[in-house]
Every structure is written in C-alpha cells, then in structure tokens.
Specification:
The chain is mostly helical. It has 14 helices and 4 strands. The strands form 2 sheets. The protein has a two-stranded antiparallel ribbon. A two-stranded antiparallel ribbon has the order 3-4. A hairpin with a 3-residue loop joins strand 3 and strand 4. The radius of gyration is 21 Å and the shape is globular.
C-alpha cells in the first residue's frame, strides 16, 4: 500500500551528507542533518499551532460573530464563532512555507494548488455563513465550485482497490465520484462540529495519523501538508476544548472537511495499489457513519435533510446526560482506534478489514447510545 514514489523530505538533507552513506562518519553527518531537519519542522509546526490559537483568540473578540444559543444549540451561553479562521490561516501558511522553502523533494503541482484553492473557497463561504446565515443552495454552490476548481487542477481519484476485484480504474467515473467525495466530506465534517472540542480533536488525531502513514510510505509532501493541518487543529483546540471559549464555525469545519478530502485524493493518486483512496474514509469513519446514519433516520421520518437538527449520535449521547467533555473524549477514543487501524494496515486488504472493524465498532456505539436513551425514558 505504501509505495515509495520519489516523495519524501529527502531534500532537507545536504547532498554532501548522503554521499558518505556507506561510512560511519557519513552516517553521523546524515543523522545530525536529519535531527536538525526534524527540529526545524517541529518548531515550524509548534509555530503554526500558536498562530491558530492567537487568531482564534482574536476572533473571540469580534462581536459580529457571536453565536447565541437556540433550541438546537448544545451550548448554554453566547459564544463567539469563526475561530476556524485560525485553522485556515495557519494551515495555508504551513503549506506555503513548506513548498516555498524547498523542503519538498519535488515542487508543488497543480493538484496541490487545486486543493489549497478549493479549501480557501469553502472557508470563505463558511465565514460568510458564520457572519450571516446563507441559504443551503449558496453553501452547496460554493462547495461545488471548490470541487470543480480542485478537479480541474487534476485532483481526482483515479483508482480504488475493491475486495475480489483488485485495483479498479475509475475512468469516466473519476470526476463525479471525486466531486461527491469532496462535497460529501466537507458537509460531514461541518455536521459533526456541534460539541466543544469534538471536531478539532478528531482533526488533530486524524491529520497526525495521515501524516505518519504518508511519511512512512515516502509521501513526504503529503505528510507535511497533513502535519500542518494537525498543528493548526491542535492550536485551535487549546481554545475550543470544553468548555469552549470559541467555536470554529463553518469557516473551520468546511475547510477541514475539504482539506481532509483533498489529502485523501492526493494519497489515492500516489499509491499504486488503490489503497490510498481508503485511508481518509477509515480515519474519519466515525464522522461518515454518524452522518449517514442520521441522514437515513431523518429520511425515514420524512424530514428535510438540509434543515438544522440535533439528531446526530454525539448530540443524542449528550442529551442522555454526558457532558461535552465526556462525549468529546468518547469520540476522540474512537478516532484513536481508527487511527490505529489505519496505521497498522499493511495494504489495501488490511484497510478493508479495518473498515469492517470500524463499522462493527460504530454499530456498537450506536447501540450504546440507543440503550442510554431508552434508560432515560
């Protein structure tokens, strides 16, 4: 699954060091160079986390973005939203610094620029919605535009590994399936941002796991993009942890959803056995499962799917008496379990087995929520 395709962070190691690879002094030089390299990157990502936190703190003082509680809210007092601007700025700064500083073993291509441009479009649309609620068709239109930009730049899922069929080339289905994936995950992440710290914690865990997987497979450029996303999410989490001082808002949740979807497509393009297309769905399976189950239950009741509600599993669990911190911890444990399944999957078949385990775990989670609801009746 993790084929080395010439990616990686090798560009940070001086050529003079690699030329002595066969000698002990040469190995020491390489080790020192790599140590300095990782220290530099650690400081960079710590800085990005600080940028995200600082911008979120500044946004908390911008009164036009106050989120007043209503019948569908999970918070009890007015809380500022729009703090996801910190995630957007920190992530995009990290991506720009990564490509411009020469850390990459190859220059940024059109798909990477398409990912950044599309993510920025949905972020701006989300900020408009945070400022003043927009009709559903405008939000969907912005997401479709973002997906179109990314796909036009070459960001498309070309192949996927299917059980019993092996690697399947998608051909003419690549564009519509990629658009569905980009728009679908953008909305799923947006829907799941409803409790203090829940979306930010999941983003931190999933992005870090994706970075480790990409780095282990020699996909250094994707790893750096994912590390930037993890750092920005972790910095925002400092202010969004229960009890939240600020919410990320649509600007943050839509950006994260689109960014994860795009990184998943990049991994799909760089892994020849088709397993790359399964990585992000596995890492965020609890978000996808909750969104799909909730939509199915509401459709069966004849409800309009685009109307706001409080029927997601995490919201139902919160109403059974568990506070924001307890629910966020439960979801974070689920995210850690999914990260472990992805990290230890050796190939595409392992990822499919991981998805099977994830499905079973989510069914058990849904049953637990239903039992708690029944016990409170």
């Amino acid at each position: 699954m993790r084929e080395r395709r010439g990616g990686g962070w090798e560009g940070a190691v001086p050529v003079s060091a690699t030329s002595n690879r066969g000698s002990v002094p040469g190995l020491l030089v390489v080790s020192a160079a790599m140590s300095r390299f990782f220290v530099v990157h650690a400081l960079l990502y710590a800085g990005l986390a600080g940028v995200a936190a600082a911008i979120a703190a500044a946004m908390a003082r911008w009164r036009p973005l106050i989120d007043a509680p209503n019948a569908r809210s999970s918070h009890a007092k007015p809380t500022p939203r729009g703090g996801g601007v910190g995630i957007v700025v920190a992530t995009l700064c990290g991506w720009a610094m990564f490509w411009s500083a020469g850390f990459a073993s190859r220059p940024a291509g059109a798909p990477e620029f398409g990912l950044a441009a599309g993510a920025l479009v949905v972020a701006l649309a989300g900020l408009m919605d945070d400022r003043r609620a927009q009709p559903a068709w405008i939000k969907l239109g912005a997401q479709a535009l973002a997906a179109a930009i990314a796909i036009a730049c070459g960001l498309a899922i070309e192949r996927v590994a299917l059980p019993g069929l092996g690697v399947v080339e998608l051909g003419p289905l690549a564009v519509p399936l990629t658009a569905l994936w980009l728009i679908g995950l953008t909305n799923a992440f947006n829907f799941m941002d409803g409790l203090d710290g829940l979306a930010a914690a999941t983003a931190t865990i999933a992005a870090a796991a994706l970075a480790l997987i990409a780095q282990a497979g020699g996909n250094g450029p994707v790893a750096a993009l994912a590390w930037s996303l993890a750092a920005a999410s972790a910095g925002f989490l400092l202010l969004n942890r229960p009890p939240a001082r600020i919410f990320m808002g649509d600007v943050g949740s839509q950006f994260l959803g689109f960014a994860f979807a795009g990184l998943g497509v990049l991994m799909a393009q760089r892994i020849a056995d088709g397993g790359g297309a399964l990585l992000v769905p596995l890492l965020l399976f609890h978000f996808l499962f909750d969104t799909a189950l909730t939509a199915w239950r509401r459709w069966r009741r004849g409800e309009l799917l685009w109307q706001a509600h409080r029927e997601h599993l995490y919201q139902r669990l919160n109403r059974t008496g568990l506070g924001h911190l307890a629910v966020t911890m439960a979801v974070s444990i689920s995210a850690l379990a999914l990260a472990a399944l992805a990290l230890f999957a050796p190939d595409a078949s392992g990822l499919w087995r991981g998805l099977g385990v994830a499905f079973a775990l989510q069914l058990a989670y849904a049953a637990w929520v239903a039992r708690r609801e029944a016990a409170r009746r």
